[in-house]
Design goal:
- This is ABC transporter substrate-binding protein.
- Pfam families: TctC.
- Belongs to the UPF0065 (bug) family.
- With 312 residues, the chain is α/β, with parallel strands linked by helices.
- It is 44% helix and 20% strand.
- It has twelve helices and ten strands.
- Strands 1, 2, 3, 4, 5, 6, 7, 8, 9 and 10 form a ten-stranded mixed beta sheet that branches.
- Helix 6 (149-160) links the parallel strand 5 (140-143) and strand 6.
- Helix 2 (29-45) runs antiparallel to helix 11 (265-273).
- The N and C termini lie far apart (45 Å).
- It binds D-malate.
- Residues 24-25, 28-30, 82, 144, 148-150, 172-174, 190-191 line the site of D-malate.
């Protein structure tokens, strides 16, 4: 009976609005990716996909909300690399990053940029390093809370220069960007999705990108590897998740709609403008994403433990 009803259920899915939880504040890069992907998925699923921003604790509050949601396919989580760093950072996590979810698919690979308020007194990354070390009790670093991508990049940066800076946590790097633009906070490492337009309009300063090679849409920016931090590399990926127990045919419908979104001309064009790459199809399947997420958890846990960073 259950199998029959699941099959019938899956056949008619979706019959109502789907809520896509973004575990960061509106206006940030994760939110931007979610709205683009959600808009396209609602077209192919024939139901509205509404975005709900549930910020706080580096994305773990929003992730916990979805982990506990009914596994009926009407609540999904659009998260990022923070799904793989939270297990090492939060010792009292109320969910298991791998076992509390059904991975639906990988979405993007996003470079990060090292940026500062526009009158920060350093003309290049070498000068920034010198200034930060000489003024370590003064310089403030913005992030979206322990477990965010901006936190991870900051943690790697502070470990690399062996200098702890005052960090100012926000519910997302959307609000953080407002303070950077206003000069209330000094530096930040954030996704190109959020920084590209501000860099190009000269409203903030950019010192480098965190990827192995330069970013085409910001080609005059050196990699941090070139600019003074050898082998410094971190890139943000975004993934879509449903609660554990969501029927496989429903996960497959969501996966199919996600794959369609990644081929959507509008999504691809917008991503390209934002320096964001949609992942190749092969990496975007549920099984491929589960394997990737496990590999990322295994990769970041020892690095986080070595840095001695944790949230609680
Ligand atoms: C992050 O730092 O994790 C993200 O930029 C947060 C956000 O998307 O607002």
């Amino acid at each position: 009976a259950l199998v029959a009803s699941t099959a019938a259920y899956a056949q008619s899915y979706p019959t109502k609005t789907i809520t896509m939880i973004v575990p960061f504040a509106a206006g940030g890069p994760t939110d931007t990716v979610a709205r683009l992907v959600g808009q396209s998925m609602s077209k192919s699923l024939g139901q509205q996909v509404i975005i709900e921003n549930v910020g706080g604790a580096g994305g773990t509050i929003g992730a916990a909300r979805v982990a506990k949601a009914d596994p009926d396919g009407y609540t999904v989580l659009l998260h990022h690399i923070g799904q793989s760093t939270a297990p090492a950072l939060y010792r009292k996590l109320t969910y298991n990053a791998l076992d509390s979810f059904e991975p639906v698919g990988l979405i993007t690979d996003v470079p990060m940029t090292f940026v500062a308020r526009k009158d920060f007194p350093a003309k290049d990354f070498k000068e920034l390093l010198a200034y930060v070390k000489a003024n370590k009790n003064k310089v403030t670093y913005a992030n979206a809370g322990v477990g965010s991508a901006s936190h991870l990049c900051g943690m790697l940066f502070m470990s690399a220069i062996d200098t702890d800076l005052t960090t100012v946590p926000y519910k997302g790097t959307g609000p953080a960007m407002n303070d950077l633009l206003g000069g209330q906070v000094d530096i930040m490492c954030d996704q190109t999705t959020n920084t590209t337009s501000q860099i190009k309009s000269g409203k903030i300063k950019a010192y480098g990108v965190t990827t192995k090679s330069r970013v085409a849409s910001l080609s005059d920016l050196p990699t941090l590897h070139e600019a003074g931090l050898p082998n410094f590399e971190v890139a943000v990926w975004h993934g879509l998740y449903a609660p554990k127990g969501t029927p496989k045919p429903v996960v497959d419908s969501l996966s199919k709609a996600l794959q369609t979104a990644l081929k959507d001309a509008t999504v691809k064009q917008r991503f390209a403008e934002l320096g964001t790459e949609p992942v190749a199809e092969a990496r975007a399947t549920p099984d491929a994403h589960r394997a990737f997420l496990k590999a990322e958890i295994d990769k970041w846990s020892p690095i986080i433990k070595k840095a001695g960073v944790y949230a609680d």
